Amino acid sequence: MIEVIPEVELSAQDETQIAEVIRECFPTDYAGRSFYQQRPHLRVVRREQVIIAQISVFYRSIRLGGVLVPIIGIGDVACLSDHRGQGIGSALMARALELGAQSQAEFALLFGKRTLYDRAGFVAQKNPYLCVDMTGAETNELAQRDANFLMVHPLKSRNWPEGGQVDFLGPLF
């Protein structure tokens, strides 16, 4: 069953289960947390007795060419290994994009390179970006980077401005 859980309603038990899914799926040390840098606004999860897969959804604004644009950021896409290949990730992504389309968000953004993202309609973009580096969940310096893994999915009619700098107005997701 797919559930949408606002972060403020996440139980301690659910958070522990999500942290376990994250730990299995990512080589990066999350230090036992269920999130990497910042808590998301909500989680889209699949539960079968326990949570077996999850996607973090962040609702925020970024600056595109001097204009503030509402977006959803997708992060921490994870599924326990013995449940992969069953369409769970695709179903969770479809639900996350549905939530984004129902909001004022004009785009869904994520960082990564997986067939799941291509199938969901994300397109790689090369925009350089500006963000606050929060490696290890600690505030570091302002970073300007090339977008090697930025992927964008339009949710409304606005076209993505190719090549222009993206200002994340804070950390990534």
Secondary-structure blueprint:
Elements: E1 2-6, H1 12-25, E2 42-48, E3 50-64, E4 67-79, H2 88-102, E5 107-111, H3 115-119, E6 123-124, E7 129-132, E8 142-145, E9 150-154, E10 166-167
Parallel strand pairs: 4-5, 7-10
Antiparallel strand pairs: 1-2, 2-3, 3-4, 3-10, 5-9, 6-9, 7-8
Q: Which regions contain 5 or more consecutive residues with pLDDT less than 50? A: none
Instruction: Return the structural class.
Output: alpha+beta
How confident is the prediction overall: mean pLDDT? 95
Number of helices: 3
Overall shape: it is: globular
Verbal overview:
The protein has three helices and ten strands, in the order E-H-E-E-E-H-E-H-E-E-E-E-E. The protein has helices spanning 12-25, 88-102, 115-119; strands at residues 2-6, 42-48, 50-64, 67-79, 107-111, 123-124, 129-132, 142-145, 150-154, 166-167. Strands 1, 2, 3, 4, 5, 6, 7, 8, 9 and 10 form a ten-stranded mixed sheet that branches.
Task: Describe what is shown at a glance.
With 173 residues, the chain is α+β, with helices and mostly antiparallel strands. The chain is 20% helix and 36% strand. It contains three helices and ten strands, in the order E-H-E-E-E-H-E-H-E-E-E-E-E.
Which features would summarize this protein structure in a list?
alpha+beta; about 170 residues; ten-stranded mixed beta sheet; globular; 3 helices
